[in-house]
Amino acid sequence: MKQFLLKSKSVLSNHFGFFLFAVILFWLKTYAAYVTEFNLGISNTIQKFLLFFNPLSSAVLFLGLALFAKGKRSYIWLIVINLLLSILLYANVVYYRFFSDFITFPTLTQTNNFGDLGGSIVALLHLYDPLYFIDTIILIVLVATKFANPKPIRVAKHKLSLVFVAGILLFSVNLGLAESDRPELLTRTFDRNYIVKYLGAYNYTIYDGIQSAKASTERALADGDNMTEVRNYLTSTYASPNPEYFGKGKGMNVIYIHLESFQNFLIDYKLNGQEVTPFLNSFTKDANTLYFDNFFHQTGQGKTSDAEFMLENSMFGLPQGSVFTTKSHNTYQSAPAILGQQGYTSAVFHGNYKTFWNRDDIYKSFGFNKFFDASYYDMNAKDVVNYGLKDKPFFNESIPLLETLKQPFYTKFITLSNHFPYPIDKEEATIEPANTGDSSVDTYFQTARYLDESVKGFIDYLKQSGLYDNSIIVMYGDHYGISDNHNAAMSKVMGKEINSFENAQLQRVPLIVRVPGVKGGVQHQYGGEIDVLPTLLHLLGTDTKNYVQFGSDLLSPDHKQVVAFRNGNFVSPTVTALNGKYYDTTTGKPVEFTDEIKQNEQMVQNSLKYSDQVVNGDLLRFYTPEGFTPIDRSKYNYNNRDKNKTKVKTALEGEAK
Fold it and tell me: Among 107, 289, 299, 304, which one carries the catalytic annotation?
């Protein structure tokens, strides 16, 4: 044993010995994180090998930088680099636990949101998390105790060259094998999981940095010719209005109710014999309600902000980060501006502070007249939870603000209570939690019931006030509530195994549209958030043909029922495409690749590509539809408010207590 310790000390006191020891520790730790934390869809032997192999080149190249230093400084550099890489890995682990995605450079600009996460972050932490820094701790102990005690010399240049040649060779082998399994990996991939699966989390970070830099230069290089190409594409995909519905809501108010993290499986779902959302269930069956039961969210990293962006603009969120935080000064042709030029007053109501998701900045580019944020509400400790004001007091206090608006109005109410990790006070829970053993899944049903009760109270007010019969009411779920990290618990909820196919089907969110005077019913056509704006504008009697919109009217006979996901996957009534695998949407059984699937894939890729070009290149500055006046941001200011606002007693007073 003594001989072994002496030999180990000798090896670790050699620069290369210490370097190789650190590389092996870091390599194995990273692989363990891949296997335990990330759902990367490993499906064959090459992918299994690459998952194990890909951290090696990163470890050699990054930790190898420490060998440029002399003596003990080399060891200190190595520990610092190891620590920084460990922080990056752990940050991705925590981020993935909620978003099922990896951090991008644009998400780092969303730091204003981090302070509001509160209990959400705590719920994402695990007791074993310190193990992500175990190799760093070991290296520090070895150096601090002088068990690893280097000589004050510098590594020879030819040996340094050997390290970096080895690192580059390892990466080249890695990339070659990846390209053999996934051709054009770096040029046609929308899904970050692919890059991490094949090349690793650290190489992905470099790739993402390059992609972000390319996107930031795209605006400077864009010109009007780019817009011509986009317009030609959109002309070929335009869906003309359905005469049965066109203009049926002309002149009516518009009231959006944003159902936070609300998945469609909750509609008509019974937990222990009780309806989870009895009011929303009944509302979908209203004589004037169009309920779309095959409607999907299409959000990316921007989540809620992506949903808002699509509903206001009919353009996709970005593949990296959020449009709200990275493209807030772009030129847009948004719903508030389109309707504002037809006499509408627009407003957003939200029980969080205006800087969250950079809303106070981008709403000016959308043309919203008013933004009632947390500063307009009574944010007392009793009524605030998680991300902001609870839904019942939120609706209650929004009513007097709504009553100040000139009609017709275009409004949006953004709820918050039904948000991960779904905390709720015992006295406010009116249904028992589920019993899956997963606390987030179990309480999800309780916060969904609370949201349901909150919406009911608000609808009761609309009926009482007379607004109900002169308003189009649109309720929509913004994104999933339960990520695929909770598939085991969701399998118990749904009574079947939740695999990748079933998880894709769970990305349905409700779209509920009530139009007074229109015959309602369940609408089975497939669609997504990108389609809401053209559908709404056609109901209001505004043709969208000349606008730059990537969705199409859900009620149009020409609507193509292919729903693009932000990562390039898609779902249609016949086929669900997931990462190069294809399934029958009805049965979930695998199907062969066909010409129709190829055409649909191309359509999805084109829609995402052209939408990204418009946003990254700010191309709408080169095109103004006939009859539309470009938005002037300087006209909007959300800092002025009535300090002496009064509270009006409404039908919701009892509900809010």
Answer: 304
